[in-house]
Amino acid sequence: MSLPRLPLTRALRSLLAEVTGRPCGLGVLPRAPNSGVADFPYVILDSLPGEFSGPGFADWHADASWTYQVTSVGERVDQVEWLADRVRSALVDRVDGRWKHVLTLPEMAVIDRELSMDGSGDPVDGAAGDAVTYVQRFTITVSPA
Questions:
Q1: DSSP summary character for residue 30
Q2: pLDDT in tens, 47-93
Q3: Which spans in 1-118 are helix H?
Q4: How many CB atoms lie within 10 A of CB 18?
C-alpha cells in the first residue's frame, strides 16, 4: 500500500488556517460560518501532482513527495504579501534545526519541506470586486514512520 495523501492535505489545511489566522479553502474559496465566501484575505490550498522514490509504488516503504499550491487572495497587494509571509513561515521556517510548525501525521514522518515557487499573481477582476493573488508552491516529502 502506498502512502496516503489525504492526511497530509488535511494537516496542511489546518496548519495554514491556524498559523495565518485566516480561512483556508481546499481547492475552493473558503466559506464563512453563514455559508457565504469568507472575507479577504484568505488562502486556497490545491493539490498538484506528486513524485515517488524508493521501492515500487505499492511498497509501503516508498517515500512520497506531494506538491501543493497555496494561493493567497486579498483586495490589496500588501494583504497578499502579508499573508504569503505567514504561509511561508508556517511551512518552511525552522528554529534550532527543527520545523517551527510541526505536521503530525499518522504512520508518516515529514522528512523535507521545500518552497519551489514564490511569486505574486495578477490582479483578477471578480464579480464582487477586484482581487489580488500571490502564488506559492511547496513540496512536502513524507516517509513511512
A1: P
A2: 998 766 666 555 556 788 899 999 999 988 889 999 999 999 999 99
A3: 6-20, 77-92
A4: 12
Q: What is the pTM of this model?
A: 0.87
Query: Is residue 65 within 8 Å of 141, Cβ to Cβ?
Result: yes
Asked if residue 143 lies in contact with residue 109, where contact means CB atoms within 8 angstroms, the answer is yes
Residues 68 and 137: beta-carbon distance below 8 Å:
yes
111-141 pLDDT, tens per residue? Answer: 999 999 998 666 565 555 678 899 999 999 9
Cα 139 from Cα 20, distance rounded (Å):
19
Residues 6 or more apart in contact with residue 86 via CB below 8 angstroms: 19, 20, 21, 22
Task: Give Cα separations from 58 to 2, 52, 54, 63, 67 (angstroms).
Answer: 5, 11, 11, 11, 20
CA Rg, the chain, in Å?
A: 16
C-alpha cell, 121: 499573481
With a CB cutoff of 8 Å and minimum separation 6, the contacts of 35 are none
| DSSP output for 33-53 | TTSSBPPSSEEEEEEEEEEEE
